[in-house]
Design brief:
By secondary structure, the protein is of the alpha+beta class. It has six helices and 16 strands.
Length: 281
């Protein structure tokens, strides 16, 4: 009898990668305004958030593309073990394990990477920027057409857990799934028209940076020289958390969000533990 593969721990979000039409404009947003240090990896720019998490910006291959989110990544304690596990579950490996990372595609074709803890050495060895508006990446979100289909991968195979769902007028528009062995989450952005504009898709394909107090983010943004609309405006989200929406030059959203709710949570309870500033991976 062949022993079944056990799924290694998946502990959090590792990164989000976006396409950008203008590298200099992206540097102004991610480097100057958000205060993240820039590392170079070929044509890509890497902006470490902490020693395990980062945002990547890659050259835009086609200006007609509406989705500027190229990939997301999650941290695992055993990339090799997780690759074996997914193969045993019949999941095709899109990018075989190399340098502590491998990638698959979820049921809707999104590129999903899995990263061995601390495998991204250039990030692991980089000290966080003292100018950064946040040193914690807490979730990624992207357009999903078929929630049930996606759940066959994220819940049934990977073990992600329901975290919260909500929307305007109590609609089920945003569905959060927490990683199985941590507090980060993914957010399914539902009910998005197939012909949605670049701006609309950019609102939904997003990354979120966490903070204990939005006032600290606002102070950091001001110190980094933000002015007018580019500074964003804080507000309460449907989940009761204070948030601020910022947009890079390609209209991809970077959401600033407090770790815990201050206001009323609509639609469903928050089922998992909230993220914190520092977590074990």
């Amino acid at each position: 009898m062949v022993a079944q593969e056990t799924r290694p721990a998946i502990t959090g979000v590792a990164f989000a990668r976006f396409y950008a039409a203008d590298a200099a404009a992206s540097q102004h947003f991610y480097g100057d305004l958000l205060g993240l240090n820039r590392l170079s990896s070929g044509k890509d720019s890497i902006y470490p958030v902490n020693d395990l998490q980062w945002i990547e910006v890659a050259p835009l291959p086609d200006a007609a593309m509406k989705s500027r989110m190229e990939a997301v990544g999650f941290t695992t304690r055993s990339a090799a073990g997780l690759e074996r596990y997914l193969k045993a579950k019949g999941v095709a490996i899109e990018k075989p394990l190399h340098g502590g990372m491998f990638a698959v595609r979820d049921p809707e074709g999104n590129l999903v990477w899995f990263v061995q803890t601390s495998a991204k050495k250039m990030v692991a060895h980089m000290k966080p920027s003292p100018r950064a508006v946040s040193q914690r990446l807490i979730h990624v979100g992207y357009v999903v057409r078929d929630e049930a289909k996606e759940n066959t991968f994220y819940q049934d195979i990977l073990g992600f857990r329901p975290y919260w769902h909500g929307g305007r007028n109590n609609a089920r528009s945003w569905v959060s799934q927490q990683v199985p062995d941590g507090t980060d989450w993914i957010e399914f952005m539902l009910n998005i028209p197939a012909d949605a504009s670049l701006k609309s898709v950019g609102v939904n394909d997003h990354v979120a940076l966490g903070t204990a107090d939005m006032a600290q983010v606002e102070a950091a943004m001001k110190a980094n020289g933000c002015a007018g609309a580019e500074c964003g405006k804080s507000q309460f989200g449907a989940d009761g958390k204070v948030q601020m929406n910022l947009y890079d030059p390609d209209l991809s959203r970077v959401e600033m969000m407090e770790f815990t709710p201050r206001g009323t949570t609509c639609c469903s309870p928050i089922l998992g533990k909230p993220p914190t500033a520092i977590e074990e991976r």
